[in-house]
Amino acid sequence: MLMACNKSNDVSNWTDSQVNEWFNQSEWAQLTMKPDSSINKRLFVEQNILNPTSWEAALKFLKESDFNSMKPGRYELADDGTYANIEEYLTKDTAHFEAHRKYIDIQYLAKGKEYIYVTPVDKKRNREVTPYNETKDITFFDEDNYTKHLLSSGNFLVLFPSDGHKPCMKVDSNEVVKKVVVKIPLVQ
């Protein structure tokens, strides 16, 4: 993975320009599928540097896989717990927001389109529906304020633990989609 010409791998000390340079020169920027413009580039770069093996495995999987011929299921990508789920489902009219504490999601649609609503995780503002489940690394909540992102085969969304998200939402009408969710362990 590209390591920009910085003397420090502590991304918190990098300027926005250095973060953008690393990101724009990385292999992630060269994929045919593009990251959604909402991506937190600083966190993205930081996690890539802290956990290069997992991010390289994720990149290779996204770059080299023929998702249309792959069956739904779980695919192990690295020894540290990095994996991908391939799912097929009908988009929804309603759902709850979800959030994770241990994993970062990379969400990509191989077929179809859906909206993913994103909102900051804020215990004071979010209305908890289901308490956090440590084993499944998930909590569900409701929130009225969010940003809507269109996910299709041309782009992917990276969701960090600070990003509550409501995936699987219909665009115009309910449709069957095929989604790839790569789960990468968060490094503190």
Automatic annotation (TrEMBL):
GO terms for cellular component: cytosol. InterPro entries: NanQ/TabA/YiaL, NanQ/TabA/YiaL_sf. NCBIfam families: YhcH/YjgK/YiaL family protein. This is Toxin-antitoxin biofilm protein TabA.
